[in-house]
Request: fold
Amino acid sequence: MFRRPARVDREFREAQRESLALLQMHAQEPPPFDNVQAEAPAGSGSEAVVPDLPPADLLAPSQQDVEGVMMRWMQPLVIDGEVHSCPTCGAYRDWIVFCMRDESVWLRCRAGHQVQEPRLDAAWFNRNSGPADHWHPTLEDGLRHLGH
Reply:
């Protein structure tokens, strides 16, 4: 019923041949990430070792290098279905939440009262905290950074 012109079929077959030739050419070349480093001759005695980590001044401290991690929690803190409030002053929002090296979680209210919260753990802290954006040498510097 409908016939395509022979020119269209010819152009399509030429495009297919060109793409096949291009695929065959790339199949013969090794991919750039597959390069194998040539080994140094055994008699040279110097082996170049390339470190796979960035320089030490670019690495973030590990969890063993810091006393703990802190984050700000502005909204009311709900634990097990109830709003947690400071046992000393009754504050129920604007907390600083600390996750210490021993994976205990501590809460600090705006007035500076601190209490350990056994119902929270490091897994809860990691789920609710964002990435670390600053490293502070002292607790006071960290609290000042977070507005307390």
Observations:
- Strands lie at 68-73, 77-79, 82-84, 95-100, 105-108, 114-116.
